[in-house]
Write a structure and sequence with these properties.
mainly beta, 50% strand, 4% helix, 4 helices, single chain, 523 residues, Porin
Length: 523
């Protein structure tokens, strides 16, 4: 019963590619995320902690905030009574054909067999509507403080509050998973995404501390440790009887959980083999999520209240449900070249804006998503597993469930740079990135949509004495995934038997991101 609850729970924490968008801060976003080797602000804590040892300011505060406008849509094939891959899924085991639903018919629609609401067993041929993510823009903050120790200038420390640069919420339909069909006779119905996800809510943050040391004027090492906190709020639907999509039989599943400790370690080496050239290499590891939460199962969720009462339908609460979800590790590499300006430092700060004509960087990440083969859910309750009541009969939830994800490892190339129009005062930047697909054919979903992506970005920084204001913008282009005719392999979850394929449709997405950064360089 509960398998659907884990399909979209945890935001992977890979800092490059995968679920996240390159460029968590305004400056690095504006140059396509090609910032690993440059890393000349306190946000090096996130990308290249070794670079903290070469900060040009003894102390720095870096505050950034991004708004992610994520548009994703799903157009499922078929109708509410016939699956897009063929086969009638509107049958009526039990009494589902003789009940009313919570979806009133439109004006002038005559009742059938005493049913005066949209029941797909009687009213056939209503197409699955195209449904899109209805959440607004998602804010993503980043805060970092760094300093080189006054009496030990080879040593630097940093603390920060870092969040995944990714959408934190999605909703396909209203808060109850109901959508407008566009059919005047039957204007409301359950979301066609219900067997994948109707609501995805993720909040993840990493309080982080880092330390770096200059082994040599041209060689630095660093490490950062993050204490991850994850909050989950996810809803979907489960088929009580596998292979039957009459939504009167659906069981709504809603999981809420918190994992208060997801450790993360980021190691890097940073070097300048010759003047103007910087290279780095890094590795980030994140512990798998392993937590317990509350899972609520609501049988006959879309049935009318009166009929739910007849069948004794009531919520079942499993208050000790365990979730385990793998997290990605990341290998990162970067090469940066900066052309020094003649005449020394422009202004008070000897960073790239004050010392270079321009810089350009190529960086590469390899995201080890292959370890995310499945999510594992163990429904449980502190006082034992209570049954779920379907048509008056008690059904026990399964003790263990695995939800296949089958993600692929991904590679990401980033290219970007800055041009310092007014040395020490004003810079323009631009960049791009290319990310390979992380989808094993047939396994695309709405929760973590990982097709091939291409980004185009731009940004600017203006410096007023020791204060920097930075703006960044990115447009992200996603490949479409089309399983309308065939190819979808992600099945819903069922209490008995095998559920139907739930991702049999067209998935389309795009994203726009705006970011602002405020930075102060202390003397």
């Amino acid at each position: 019963m509960a398998a659907a609850v884990a399909a979209a729970l945890i935001t992977p924490t890979a800092q490059a590619g995968g679920f996240e968008i390159p460029g968590a801060g305004a400056a690095d976003l504006g140059r396509g995320g090609a910032w690993y080797a440059k890393s000349d602000t306190a946000l090096a804590l996130r990308y290249n902690p070794a670079a903290l040892a070469r900060m040009t300011s003894m102390t720095m505060v870096d505050v950034n905030a991004s708004l992610l406008f994520y548009d994703s849509c799903f157009e499922r094939s078929g109708t509410y009574d016939e699956h897009g891959y063929g086969g009638d899924v509107g049958g009526a085991p039990g009494s589902s054909g003789s009940v009313n639903t919570r979806f009133p018919n439109g004006p002038g629609v005559a009742p059938v067999g005493g049913i005066d609401s949209f029941n797909p067993y009687h009213y056939r041929g209503v197409e699955n509507p195209r449904v899109c993510n209805q959440t607004g823009p998602g804010p993503v903050p980043q805060l970092a403080f760094a300093m080189r120790l006054p009496k030990h200038e080879k040593l630097a420390i940093s603390v920060g509050i870092l969040a995944p640069n990714a959408r934190g919420a999605q909703r396909y339909g209203n808060s109850d998973g109901v959508v407008e069909t566009g059919n005047p006779d039957h204007p409301l119905a359950p979301s066609p995404t219900r067997y994948i996800a109707t609501q995805v809510g993720n909040l993840q943050v990493f309080p982080t501390i880092g330390v770096a040391y200059a082994l040599h004027p041209r060689l630095n090492v660093g490490v950062a440790f993050g204490w991850g906190i994850t909050v989950v709020d996810f809803a979907s639907a489960t088929q009580a009887f596998g292979g039957n999509e009459n939504f009167n039989d659906d069981i709504r599943t809603h999981l809420k959980a918190v994992d208060g400790f997801v450790p993360r370690i980021n190691l890097s080496v940073d070097a300048a083999p010759v003047d103007g050239l910087r290279v780095m290499a890094g590795f980030q590891w994140t512990q798998s999520v392993d937590t317990h939460g509350k899972l609520t199962l609501e049988p006959h969720y879309y049935m009318s209240d009166a009929d739910r009462e007849v069948f004794g339908a009531r919520p079942t609460v499993l208050d000790n449900t365990r979730l385990r979800a793998g997290q990605a590790s990341v290998l990162s590499f970067g090469v940066n070249y900066g052309l020094p300006r003649k005449g020394g430092v422009a202004g008070e700060i000897a960073d790239g804006l004050g010392t270079q004509v321009f810089d350009v960087e190529l960086s590469f990440n390899y995201d080890l998503h292959g370890r995310m083969d499945s999510y594992r859910v163990n429904p449980g309750a502190k006082d034992g597993l209570p049954p779920v009541v379907v048509y008056g009969a008690e059904i026990e939830p399964p003790a263990s469930i695995e939800i296949p994800k089958n993600w692929k490892n991904q590679y990401v190339f980033r290219l970007g740079g800055d041009v310092n129009i007014v040395p020490g005062v004003f810079a323009l930047r631009a960049g791009t990135w290319y990310e390979s697909s992380g989808i094993t054919p047939g396994y695309a979903g709405l929760d973590f949509y990982l097709p091939r992506r291409i980004g185009a970005t731009a940004g600017a920084t203006i410096r007023i004495q020791r204060f920097d204001l930075t703006l960044g913008y990115a447009r992200v282009f996603y490949d479409d995934t089309d399983y309308r005719e065939s190819g979808g392999l992600v099945r819903g979850n069922a209490g008995t038997g095998e559920a139907t394929v739930g991702n049999n449709g067209l998935i389309q997405a795009k994203m726009n991101i705006g970011s602002i950064g405020l930075r102060y360089h202390f003397k």
